[in-house]
Amino acid sequence: MHVICVASQKGGVGKTTISLNLGLALARAGNRTLLMELDAQGSLCLSLGLPDRARPGIAEVLTGAEHIGNVLLRTRDPQLHVLSVGRVDPTTVAGFEEALTRTGMLTGMLSKLESEFDLVLLDCPAGLGKVTSRALEAATHVLSPLQAEPLALRSVGQLLALVDRVRAEKNPRLTLLGIVLSMFDRQTPASLEVAETLWTRFPGGIILDSVIPRDEVFLEASLRGSPLLLMQKRPPPLARVFDQLANDVLDRLDTHGGGATEEDDGPIPLLV
Fold first, then answer.
1. Is 107 helix (H, G, I), strand (E, B) or coil?
2. Record's InterPro entries (predicted)?
């Protein structure tokens, strides 16, 4: 099971939007996918139009009130499930985070799901606090959205340093899946400059080819409580970006299978 931590050193960069739409795209590609909400604000379920803290989830698992298998939310796509934070009262967020970040707690929950899912996306809270650190310790990969604006670019080194430290001290299997440029506005010079800097400064392979633009369609999707692919019978063209992102992710995870190897690399006959 691949566990992808969706994390950023900065808030408001589109982590939840990317987690939601990427998760559905991965499921539609045939992968048993779980969206696991680690942000106590409950942004993922709010994005799905669910009433605030309406369903039991991780909080109830932590207290022993529920078994993890009983709080998985089914979706319209049978390959996609959601695990919400549960009923976390705003006044008890610190207690929830303390329980979640106890040594072995998150990895223990994930181990119980290993036989049921191929991919898990951990939608982390903003910043590089203890919840995000624990998520990185439990993950196999990290995907980082980076908003196409100067402050995000200047602070990206903070995330990379944390990933290196976690890999060295806690989780040697942790791999940087890549950085995905989000909220890109080709009409804004500063946004263009950030994108150009990313593509020229960082080594090849760190920046994913897929780019998430700034677009009002995301606000409309949030208003409807729906991922882009399910907004209407004919999804908006922007939804294809997440199919491309899913392909980029799967290529880097090498989960497609059945591909050509160096030994058999060559033309494939059309007729059989």
1. helix
2. AAA_dom (IPR025669), DNA_Partitioning_ATPase (IPR050678), P-loop_NTPase (IPR027417)
Query: What does the block give as tokens for 191?
Result: 């946004």
Sort 107 into a burial class: Cβ within 10 Å, 0-12 / 13-18 / 19+: middle
Cβ atoms of 175 and 38 closer than 8 Å: no
Q: Residue ranges per domain, the chain?
A: 2-253
As a whole number of angstroms, the distance between CA 190 and CA 238 comes to 22
Residue 44 and residue 268 in contact, taking contact as beta carbons nearer than 8 Å: no
**What does the alpha-carbon distance between residue 84 and residue 217 come to, in Å, rounded to a whole number?**
24
Strand order in the sheet with 80-83: 73-74, 80-83, 33-37, 119-123, 2-6, 141-147, 175-184, 207-213
**Global pTM?**
0.87
Query: Degrees (nearest 5) of the Cα angle 104, 127, 74?
Result: 60
- What are the tokens at 208? 């994913």
Q: What is the dihedral of CA 83, 218, 148, 145, to 10 degrees?
A: 10
pLDDT 10s digits, 121-179: 999 998 889 999 999 999 999 999 998 888 888 888 899 999 999 999 999 999 999 99
Question: Would you state the structure tokens that stand for residue 3, as one six-digit string?
Answer: 């566990």
Q: Hey, how many other C-beta atoms are within 10 angstroms of the C-beta on 77?
A: 15
pLDDT digits (tens, 9 = 90+) for 189-247: 888 888 888 888 887 788 998 989 888 888 788 777 778 878 777 888 888 999 999 99
Q: What CA–CA distance (Å, rounded) separates 22 from 16?
A: 10
